[in-house]
Write a structure and sequence with these properties.
Layout lengths: L9 H11 L1 H18 L2 H4 L8 H22 L3 H18 L3 H16 L8
Helix pairs in contact: 1-2, 1-5, 2-4, 2-5, 4-6, 5-6
Amino acid sequence: MSDTSIAGEIPIIIMALNLFGGKELEDFAKSLAQDILKRFPPALANDPQRMVSPKRLTSIIEEVCEKAARFREEKKLGMFKKAALGNTFQWELKEMGYNEQFVEVATEAVIVYITRKASSPTP
């Protein structure tokens, strides 16, 4: 029987990060997850009895996404580095204990922000 735990996948993820992103990218992705953790901890996210307003949650996620988009512009991230950032962010949220639905929504938002073209300044 094969080992399907996350521990078996960690070395592969780290190897890919080193190849495509490095320590700076990994640290940045983890800092995005930490930003969410500070303002919307898993205990709150995973408890249906403790609702957070959609406006507040949207604001938290948008701030993280905007930070990711600025990082993309500063570091000129290519396709593989964008994927590495998204994967690291996703795994960090999972390890922090967020439920699967929240992890998917937050990760998708970050991926959308870092993959869309930068807006041109208006003349």
